[in-house]
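Weekly modeling sync, notes
Attendees: AB, CL, MP (scribe)

Item 1: holo prediction request
CL wants a bound-state model with manganese (II) ion before deciding which constructs to order. AB pointed out that an apo prediction alone won't tell us much about the pocket. Agreed to run with the ligand included and paste results into these notes for async review.

Input as submitted:
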Amino acid sequence: MIELHCHTTVSDGTLTPGELVELAASLGITHLAITDHDSTGGVKEAARACGSRDIVLIPGVEMSATYQGRPMDLLGYGIDPDDPALSAALADMVRRRADRLGEMLRGLRSAGIELEEDEVIQLAAGGVVGRPHVAQALVRRGVVSSVAEAFDHYLGRGRPGYVPKENFTPEEAIELITGAGGVAVLAHPRYLKLDDDQFRALLDRLMDAGLAGIEVYYSQHTAEDVARFERFARQRGLLATGGSDFHGANKPEIRLGIGALGRPLDETMAEALLERIAAARHKKAGG
Ligand code: MN
Ligand code: MN
């Protein structure tokens, strides 16, 4: 069993990178990629935790992009977590999102709700601050009784605290991943809700930028999704990867190492991915 898509406390998961490695080891996972949102901050701790264990750690990231107004995530594998261009772009994004927080809080103030920046930032526990943390702060203050209610009344599109999210373009994300020595994979394509023609047009665009794979065996994909995206991957010569999108207790129904249709994720896809990473590094080194 392997895992190529999971989150730690560095973004919105509940296990630290070390705890996640421990869980992976206890499950007999052989290859592990930690893919926190817009951060490579957990890679080193995970590598230390792997230590002498029999786990191949693949440094990863899940970058947030926007495509035609829709959110689109790109997974990066085999990246150098210290790559200067990638690190600078991620740090810049954190700053832009912090500015967004200020705007959200100003919007809420106009609706008569006072929140302090610090109380929201604390809830993000060092990760990327986003709407879920503002929602949690509103729950804590007793303004609303649930995160869902916070989104409905205050943070959703058209509400006083709504500010569009700052994101990368898909091309920027792919180029940053590739530039950091990694390979880029389109995450959970089901969520894009594109028809076949639209998806083909998307692949044309992303493959020009260097896309290497599609996350076919995603835990929330149906049998129909799997068949459909397998077909696209085969037609385009793209890698077909998979992952659970484990978030710990934040999404308790998702289990580490389990992909589409409740099946354990297979080692062969990690091996194919590692081959592609090696080829990308060779190419980057000018070989
Ligand atoms: Mn995602
Ligand atoms: Mn994810």
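Recorded for review: The mean pLDDT is 94.
Action items: CL to compare against the apo run; MP to circulate these notes.
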